[in-house]
Description:
succinyl-diaminopimelate desuccinylase activity, EC 3.5.1.18, 10 helices, Bact_exopeptidase_dim_dom
Amino acid sequence: MENPLTPEVLADPVALTRALVDIESVSRNEKAIADCVEEVLRKVPHLSTHRHGNTVMARTELGRGQRVVLAGHLDTVPLNNNFPSTMRGDLMYGCGTSDMKSGVAYALHLAVTLPDPRYDVTYFFYEAEEIESKYNGLFLVAEAYPQWLTADFALLLEPTYGIVEAGCQGTMRAVVATTGVRAHSARSWHGVNAIHGAGELLRRLETYQARRVVIDGCEYREGMNAVRIAGGVAGNVVPDLCEIEVNYRFAPDRTPADAEAHLREVFAGYELRVTDSAAGAAPGLDAAPAKEFLAAVGAAPIGKLGWTDVARFAAMGVPALNFGPGDPNLAHHPDEHVEISKIRDGAATLHRWLAPA
Ligand SMILES: [Zn+2]
C-alpha cells in the first residue's frame, strides 16, 4: 500500500483526519495504520521514533525543562456502514472521525510540523483502547517501557467537543446477591424466593442519592445503577439465587477501596463481590503546562464523567486532561462525524500552546 499520509496531507489537520479515517483500524487490526504512522515519523529528523506492537511513540529531545505527552488511540470500534469517510458540508462522517482520528491527526500534524515546541513532546499513537484493558497500547507500554511515559503533563486527544475535560471518574462493577431456598412452586411456602428478595436491593438503588462532587472547580456527578439481573431455575421452581450487577461511577476524590466500602455500606446485609474496577483521576490542573494549556484554550474545564486513559497517567503521577474536537455523544454511533471548523479551532489552540514563545 502506498502511504496516504503524504506531506500535503500531514500539513492539514482536516485532510489528515480524513486520510486516517480511511485507513481501517478496528481494534486488533491496527498494523496498517501503525505502519503508515511509523513510516512518516521515522523520516522526521527532530523526532526519535520507537514502536512496541502496534503502538508508535515519537519524541523530541531538545533539553527543555518540561515534557508533555500528546496521546491518541489508533483503533476504532467495529464499522457500521460508515467506512470510508464522506463529507456533507462542514461535517466529516465516518468511523473514527470523532473517536478519535481527529485527535490523532492533531498529534501527528504537530509531530511532523513543529520542530521546536516550547516543551519537549512525547507523541503516542497507540493500539486497542476500545477493547479489554490487557490489549491497550498504553498499558503494554507501561509494562514494557515505563520510561516512555515519563512526563510533566499529558493531553489525551479524546473527543470533548473542544472543551477541556479534566480528570475522570472511577468505575466499579460488583455483583450483589440475594439467596433463598428452592422449592416446587406448587408448594412455594416450603421455599424462600430469592428474586422476591431482590426487591429490597432494587429499592435501595432506586432511592439512592448520587453525590455531586466539585474538585478544583470541576463537577463530577456520580451514578450507581443496576446493569444486569439474573435469577431463576425453571418454570416450576422457587429460585434460591438472584444476582444483580451494579456499576458504580465514582468521583476521583474516592479511591477504589473507598468505592468498595461505600457499596458495602449501601448493600449492607447482602453478599457483594467486586468484579472489576478502575481508579479515577483528579483534575490535574496545577502543572505549569496544564495552566498554560488552559490559558490557550481560554475556557474553564469541566469534569470528565467517563473513564479514560488519563487515569493511567494519573496513576503514574502525570497530571492529564482530555481535549479533542469530536462530540463525545457521537462516539461509537453509526452517524459518527466531526465538524471541520472544530478540527481547525482545536489545531489552532494546540499550536498556540506548543509553538515557541
Ligand atoms: Zn476514544
